[in-house]
TrEMBL record, chains A, B:
Record family assignment: Belongs to the SLC41A transporter family.
Organism whose genome encodes this protein: Gottschalkia purinilytica (Clostridium purinilyticum)
UniProt keywords, alphabetically: CBS domain, Cell membrane, Magnesium, Membrane, Metal-binding, Transmembrane, Transmembrane helix, Transport
Job description of the protein: Acts as a magnesium transporter.
Name of this chain's protein: Magnesium transporter MgtE
Gene expressing this chain: mgtE
Membrane disposition: Multi-pass membrane protein
Key word Transmembrane present: yes
Residues covered by the CBS domain: 131-194, 195-251
């Protein structure tokens, strides 16, 4: 299908292209535009029917959006902006170069421009910044018939009519009613008798992550956003929430690998920026690994008298690091999903203690059998390594389990208490353990 | 609010409790039930109005569901099951003990039981297993007025009426039409003239992850599920997709930390099960860390002639591991989001090469300055360590960038090419590099 259309475009058979495209989903049309060379992009974009072209516009990349806006006439811009939903307009305005934004705002009608400016004022990542103001509002005194009539009259420009909002004269939110309820109710009933009044809403300044958590908790499709005076100012829809959920997950993945989170796509980010995002933690961790060096230097005589001990340092450190990051990952994720709360810390300690004794014992025994019988390492040394391994695993899992919860307690993002940091902490402790056990068992 | 109701329950003021509860969201009522002791759970559950109690039932924990089903009468079970949406019924049937399931199925009417059995046959995590069959179907010859009439008559039992599906006599899917379109269109128009015919659907046996990706791509709220003969058998709704997205993310987090993924909540999982999920990778990685031990033993003479070299091993290994897992995490996540494709491998190599030279040089220079000037390490040794560091970072980032893509190419989940595995691979290479550079610069 895709290839067929690309071929038609290259053969300049545009009327056939138009017929094919109008039958396709706008997301797929946007994808085709991404594949085209610049001169073709404009031609194809212009042959799309007006209502489709605005929709397609909201799905193409920022680069293409900027290019199209720069190339088309003011009248065409005005057509697109008037067809676009407000939240999509804001999405691209926030990320485009100033010159392009200016051209867009110049061709937006005054009302819409005011709304845009108003929403742009909300802080980044706040509920206000992701809401749309295109919703259906009803009055509670309306009959169902009047309400449906109102939906019919005003619904065409709204982002969703699935949920309608009942407000009073001061725009205070009084109730919500689904289109389903409107359709299935008797036409003579009053809105106020059918609407839901147990209202779960979010404030304009709340974080978008809070909004996402509330959507997940209540299985919402839309949620009202109110200002400080509890006036309804907008709604958030689930499609934007799905994006936010993925964005928050990506941030956690990045932080947990010791990087500054970034919303930009990997392939579109410059090497300088990528390096900048990664270097800070690498530097911090490299410098803090100095501890391990100092510990080794302090116990140099131990290592010199039993040289073979050195060769087990990497295995002990790696296993400790891996055991610790398993625990920290589980706890960080459970905290993010709300499955583990701050006051569960003792339950976590108890559980990690049991798990680490179980896992540590198995590892320790397997390791002993392997190095004593297979590799022929001396009994005392094998014992030293295996005992250290057991305690390292226990320690690593406790540290991995506790640190993320403590971080959250002091309002630091638990995600930074992940693998890289745990590894560095556990390494130092593992070495001290190792040398202490060695001094004790080997009498050095 | 919560506390107030808990107090009322403890004072046995149940009529007040009932009034309060009926004004609340079902999710919050479910949360209150979780906090109660068992004898109170049943009382409170029974005072809820019938339509609310089924909804609440779908939000309480599996343990509570099993307890309630075991304790209530057959008639009450039958009421709940008939009020429940089919997909919620299936959700809990899949996870409850057999005895409870038997009691539920015995009290389900025949039609519904047949549907349940049919859906239970779809493989776990397939689109079929998460769909619901409660949707509105229309015929294309209907007028809008007739269609709306049909929605009104049949809509009350449907999970959603936001999208209606147009099917022919053989249940083949011919089009979709949103309730919005139905309401905003002229009543005399025909469904076939208004419906969308560019149909994006999924097959019953497709993976739920594919379903989630399609939802994200097209911003859908619902999607039709068809069988091999293209007959419409069910629909998937966005609320289930949001859960699946989070579940898939959790799986990735677990795999990336070297654990078998688990859907169970951490605090509800036994230590044995937790240990079992973690031990396999710990064992594999521990045994493969033998390499590093062997490398050290092979170069024992190098270490003995310049003892100080030992003390930098942890720092080199940690920094290499961290640098590598940054890259692998970025690439694994980009692959999961579809931002990096298999044929981008050379772009990734080029980018990681630039980034690693940038980041590696900074780290290397900082490290040289620190150990030569601050710690007073000999010039040649400082140089050895810093040069090794640069090449370790380059190597780590290349390995971290390439392995996940290669994994995907041979259809292995890229998520297992994460931190623990990369660390183990990079450690061995870093040591070989270290000793080679040392032999060269220090002439050992």
């Amino acid at each position: 299908m895709m290839q067929e259309i690309l071929d038609l475009i290259n053969e300049n058979k545009f009327s056939q292209v138009r017929d094919k495209l109008t039958e396709m989903n706008v997301v797929d049309i946007a994808q085709i535009l991404e594949e085209l060379e610049r001169d073709k992009v404009l031609i194809v974009f212009r042959i799309l029917p007006k209502d489709i072209s605005a929709d397609v516009f909201s799905y193409i990349s920022r680069e293409q959006q900027a290019y199209i806006i720069e190339s088309i006439t003011d009248k065409e811009i005005s057509n697109i902006v008037n067809e676009l939903f407000l939240d999509d307009t804001i999405d691209f305005i926030e990320e485009l170069p100033a010159s392009v934004v200016k051209k867009v705002l110049k061709n937006t009608d005054k009302d819409k421009r005011n709304f845009i400016n108003q929403i742009l004022k909300y802080p980044e990542n706040s509920a206000g910044s992701i809401m749309t103001i295109e919703f259906v509002d009803l009055k509670k005194e309306m009959t169902i018939k009047e309400a449906l009539e109102h939906v019919r009259k005003t619904g065409v420009d709204k982002e969703t009519i699935d949920t309608c909002y009942v407000i009073d004269g001061h725009r205070k939110l009084e109730g919500v009613i689904s289109i389903r309820k409107l359709i299935l109710s008797d036409e003579d009933e009053l809105v106020k008798d059918v609407m839901h009044t147990n209202l779960i809403h979010i404030n304009t300044l709340d974080d978008q992550e809070t909004a996402a958590d509330t959507f997940k908790k209540y299985d919402f499709l839309t949620m009202p956003v109110v200002d400080k005076e509890k006036r309804l100012v907008g709604i958030i829809t689930i499609d934007d929430i799905v994006d936010i959920i993925e964005q928050e997950n990506t941030e956690d993945f990045h932080k947990m690998a010791g990087m500054e989170p970034s919303e930009e796509e990997y392939l579109k980010t410059s090497p300088f920026k990528l390096a900048k995002h990664r270097i800070v933690w690498l530097l911090v961790l490299m410098v803090s690994a100095t501890f391990t060096g100092n510990i080794i230097r302090r116990f140099e005589d131990v290592l010199q008298s039993v040289v073979i001990l050195t060769s087990f340092i990497p295995m002990l450190m790696d296993t400790g690091g891996n055991a610790g990051s398993q625990s920290s990952t589980l706890i960080i994720r459970s905290l993010a999903l709300g499955e583990v709360k701050l006051n569960d810390i003792f339950k976590v300690i108890r559980k990690e203690l049991s798990v680490s004794i179980l896992a540590g014992s198995v590892l320790s025994i397997v390791n002993f059998l392997r190095i004593y019988y297979l590799e022929g390492i001396a009994f005392n040394v094998s014992l030293t390594v295996s005992i250290t391994l057991l305690f390292t695993v226990i320690l690593a899992k406790l540290v991995g389990g506790i640190l993320p919860i403590l971080a959250k307690k002091i309002k630091v993002d638990p995600a930074i208490m992940a693998s890289p940091l745990i590894t560095t902490i556990v390494d130092a402790s593992a070495l001290i353990l190792y040398f202490s056990v060695a001094s004790w068992i080997l009498n050095i």
